[in-house]
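User: For a reading group we're discussing how well predicted structures match intuition. Take Pirin N-terminal domain-containing protein. Before you show the prediction, I'll give you the sequence so everyone sees exactly what went in.
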Amino acid sequence: MTRSSPVSRIQRAGERFLTEVEGITTRHAFSFGQHYDPSNIGFGRLLAHNEESLLSGRGFDDHPHRDTEIVTWVLSGSLLHEDSTGESGIVYPGLVQRLSAGSGVVHAERNDAYRVDRASPRVPVRFVQSWIRPDAPGGAPSYAQRDIEPAALATDWVPAASGSERDAAVSIGAATSTLWITRLAAGATRVLPEAAYVHLFVASGEILVEGVGVLGEGDTLRVVGSAALRVTGRQPSELLAWAMG
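Assistant: Thanks. Here is the predicted 3D structure of Pirin N-terminal domain-containing protein, as structure tokens, for the group to look at:
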């Protein structure tokens, strides 16, 4: 049996759907809300991949979710999370957050962490939020957040959220899905995680992907079919890669 060659597709930053309301800018990798494209509805188990920018005091008030694994990674600033289970937390760079919506949860996310922590600066917050389809619907909602050591991110890919990696920072209810994060110095290299579906996002910087080309901030690469592609930093860069079965 012949192994098929992997297929890749670049989505440039400017090709993402854009939603703007007062003080909030969202860039969507896939169809979302009023943006509909039947050829771009998720990827693998990834239902949504949104890059959010909130000015101080802005955010998303109480809104519901169910049967979704929601993973949040802050790039700059800080984000206050509060939900209907009584959980709350401040999410900042280097800390990964997971909300398993299960049978149903209501939560709010706002750039007003200074309400509960006077040390939180009143600056814009930029974060990436991913929605993953869980293996089974229902169940009790749950919440987790955990810091990741900067030194680990600078050395290799770190499993930030996973349904299978035992040393992942937080667990999710999707056995074949893992969010890997790394930070590359200029000239440093990594090998892209291998899986049936890989979604690579350049959160900052610029990289060269073997056999694909140059990707800049906000660009994504979707790979179907296992491919150990070499990634080289052309500038200091932060990368998020969903590897999914």
